[in-house]
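Order emerges. For instance:

***
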Amino acid sequence: MRTFDFAPLHRATVGFDQFADLMDRILTTEVSQPTYPPYNIEKTAADAYRITIAVAGFSEADLMVEVKENALVVSARKAEDETPRTYLHRGIATRAFERRFHLADHVKVTGATHADGMLHIDLEREVPEALKPRRIEIASQKALEKDVVEAKAVN
């Protein structure tokens, strides 16, 4: 495996430390990533997204969705079933899980719904007005000259 050293990037740039940390996190992730539960990420509009997670066997009370430190954390813990059961085949996994999604700046979770064994989490990118591009009007020279008031010398 290749490893990259991002130390020169930290020395030569200002404000790109999040980018370097992201690249470091992506490149150093282990090959054996958890695959449970399966999920989809879709783009529903220009600045809207939806994460859909298959959570068969879990109720709304078993699921927890929270946002902390630019990360969306979805976790589930099934309460222990007291009734004794004998399974001939057990293919529906209801084991506890925690799935993390790192959110970009200005991405907010707008809601979550649970229907038909699927958990849908809606996200939206809300760019502040100060960061949106704005058009600067260019004043003509004649308009500047019109605003100048004649001044007389005091001495």
